[in-house]
Each structure stands twice: as structure tokens, then as C-alpha cells.
Design goal:
Structural class: mainly alpha
Helix content: 55-70%
Oligomer: single chain
Order of helices and strands: HHHHHHH
Number of helices: 7
Shape: elongated
Length: 167
Amino acid sequence: MNEVKEALRNIEQNYKLFLQQQFTFIGALQHTRENADDMIRPVASISQVQSYMDHHCNNSTDRRILNMFLNICNDLSKLCHKLETVHSGNNITNGILERCKLLLSHSNDLSTIRAKYPHDVVNHLSCDEAKNHYGGVVSLIPIVLDCMKEWVAHIEKLPRPMLYDAN
């Protein structure tokens, strides 16, 4: 369980660095959307961000920040799979993990999700950007982090014999 908490802390630290560069991330999405002639559709999935980086990114700053986003998503996905091995699950924890897996699915449509208070990632966007283009993609990581913290909180409330070591 300590391993899980440590991994979650590391992801949160990486996310804090990423969050400080949110405007760079939005700029990179804007540049790559322009290069892809894809200005109408919202950025709605992890695979769309991956595609923009792989095929329409032509500067190192944009590539670095898009890669940072994708790496955090990948780390969250790996942690999600690790959580399944740490605990056999009950209805609540299994539901939380399923939600995380769905959100982190590369083809999942993120265009309608929005992080809510206390997260202010959407507030940093203009109204048009938040509603129409990037609100879902900037909301993904804080929502999944909240789900994983909720999972840990539920697990810690369970009696000890229900936990087992994955090692």
C-alpha cells in the first residue's frame, strides 16, 4: 500500500509541474490543431493528443509538454492496473477503478468532463476554450487523481485481512 501511495505522490508532483505549464500545453494543442487543420473538433481523447504530437508537432517545446501530458496519463494508467493487484476489490473500489480505466482509455471521449472545485484548471481557460476545445482534456488528470485518492481512502477503511501484498 505504501508503494501505491508513493507512486500517487510522484504522479501528483509531476502533475504540479505540468499544471504550472498549462498555458504552454494549451498553446501546443492550439499549434498542433492548426497544423492538422482540425480547428472545429474539440480535443476529446488521449489518442487525439498522441496523434497531434506524432504527426503535427513541429517544435520541441510543444512536443515536450504534450509528451509530459501523455506520460502522466500513462503513469496513471499503470497505477490503475497496480491498484487492481493490491486489493481484490469490493463494489465501491471496483467502481472507482472502472471509472479511472474508462477515463484513461485512449479512445474515451473527454469532451464533456470538467474538473470541479477545488480544481481551477478549467477556470484558466477562456470561455470558448473551456466550453468548446480543451475543457475535457485539462480536466482528465485532476479527476483521475481524485478518483485514485478516493480509492486509497476506501481501502484504508477496510479491515486489514482484506488487503494483501502484491509482491
